[in-house]
Structure formats: C-alpha cells, structure tokens
Design a protein that fits this description.
single chain, 66 residues, mainly alpha
C-alpha cells in the first residue's frame, strides 16, 4: 500500500469511551474543567486512552456543557 496515494488510505474507525471510562471522566470534569498535562497522562494510563483522546474529550465536554 502506497501511503502517498490517498485513495488507498483507510480512515481509522472512531473509538467511543465506554461506560466505565465515561464515569471516571465525568467525575474528574466535576472537579476541574481544564485538567493539567500530568492529570491527562494519568487518566490516559488509567483508562487505556491516549492523553490526546482525554484532552479532546474534555474539549468536547466543555463545548457541550456551555
């Protein structure tokens, strides 16, 4: 597969947080709307998510909370 040919590239399927992950994320959200880098890394390890995924979840949650 040639990575320069966009026709052969397959988009990764979206992974949604499961119920137990959401429970933890929502609990943390009640305490802080803006988790530190260290907290995002810790949450990512605890929940099996990347810190970037945790960051995006908080961004989306803040946006929907408004």
């Amino acid at each position: 597969m040639d990575p320069t040919n966009s026709a052969t590239m397959v988009k990764a399927k979206r992974k949604r947080a499961n119920a137990s992950q959401l429970k933890v994320l929502n609990q943390v959200f009640q305490h802080t709307f803006f988790p530190s880098t260290e907290l995002r890394i810790q949450l990512g390890k605890q929940l099996g998510m990347s810190p970037r995924t945790v960051q995006i979840w908080f961004q989306n949650k803040r946006q929907s909370w408004r």
